[in-house]
Amino acid sequence: MNADLLQALQANLLSPALLFFVLGIVATLARSDLKFPEPLYITLTIYLLTAIGLKGGAALADAGFARVWLPTLAGIGLGIVIPLWTYAALRYVGRLPAVDAAAICAHYGSVSAVTFIAATNFLRQIGQPFEDYATAFLAVMESPAIVVGVLLGKFALRQSGDAAPLGGVIRSALHEAVFGRSVVLLVGALIIGVLAGKRGLEATAGFFVTPFQGVLALFLLEMGMVAARRFADLKKVGAFLVVFGIVAPVINGVGGVLLGDAVGLSPGGAMLFGTLAASASYIAAPAAMRLALPEANPTYYLTAALGITFPFNITFGLPLYLAVAQWAA
Q1: Domain range annotation of the chain
Q2: Rounded Cα distance, 78 and 74, in Å
Q3: Contact criterion met (CB below 8 Å) for 58 and 249
Q4: Distance between CA 6 and CA 16 in Å, rounded?
Q5: How many CB atoms lie within 10 A of CB 218?
Q6: What pTM was computed for the model?
Q7: 105 vs 120: CA distance, rounded Å
Q8: 2-57: per-residue pLDDT in tens?
Q9: Mean pLDDT, contiguous 10-residue spans, the chain (329 residues)
Q10: Contact between residue 12 and residue 315 where contact means Cβ atoms under 8 Å apart
């Protein structure tokens, strides 16, 4: 194995954020009574999304539209293509019911903000520069796949005669995809960052910048506990979905890195682009699926996204995507 990849892997595995994630897993598997109250979890989520949106918006204002429009369009394209190929794999290779395949593909086409945050933290830790405006890619890649997944699921249900009236369901799904909590916070903070610029970011740095690493460590502690609670469901989802939860992010991540390199991003920026493509949503997408595709089995899409893909990405995926980005460059 390449020495740089081994060094990056070691740096990632020994980072405080990841070690807190492991602590959460160990605490749950050991049946500790450690628990986060739901309001605290929501507060940490709000803080992280607002902080990355604000910082990304300030960087976006500094970079200018000319540098951002092409990778942004590429990100939207990925958000459409990824759910299409993953749906075909889940439906025709994995033989999953159409509505479950649609719900899962929506999760894998959408993105995980926490995986993105872990990736930026990893790059900063090893001193790898990247485009600060990459948060814009996170903002635009969250919703398209959710809409595609809902359309695929409703089309399948319509063929079987089990669908509710299509118009109302699509409107509900679009509303959740565009105005769900995570999207509103991220895009809203991004716009505020663009309008306020670096001066506005500096004025709030004592709250949104300095404590960021500590808040991230606490959040990943909670995510470790949540992921560990999903390990028991691995028997239910079957071997195919376990393999899919590892192979699909690698395919999406490598493809995303190469596309990021092709549209002119630096190795660090291409790595973040690939990380977004490799990640699977477990905040926006589950909320949308509960509304639009209640017939889908949550055990499948939550276990795949949170119990398999998320732990893989933040432990082994990040160094892998960086190595591909450095090779491509």
Answers
A1: 3-23+35-328
A2: 6
A3: no
A4: 18
A5: 18
A6: 0.83
A7: 25
A8: 666 677 777 777 788 889 988 999 999 999 999 888 888 888 888 988 888 888 88
A9: 68 81 91 89 86 84 82 92 96 92 94 90 91 85 85 78 59 66 79 88 89 88 86 82 96 97 96 96 79 83 91 93 94
A10: yes
> What residue has token string 């490598």?
254
pLDDT tens-place string over residues 263-283: 999 999 999 999 999 999 887
Residue 42 tokens read as 């929501």
Q: Which fold has domain 3-23+35-328?
A: Na+/H+ antiporter like fold (1.20.1530)
Cα 310 to Cα 218: distance, rounded to the nearest angstrom: 16
d(CA 80, CA 139): 14
Q: Report pLDDT for 164.
A: 56
How far is the C-alpha of 54 from the C-alpha of 196, rounded, in Å? 9
> In this structure, what token pair is assigned to residue 247?
């192979």
CA distance 176 to 169: 11
* 147, 29 contact by CB (below 8 A): no
Q: Directed axis angle between helix 267-278 and helix 69-88, to 10°?
A: 30
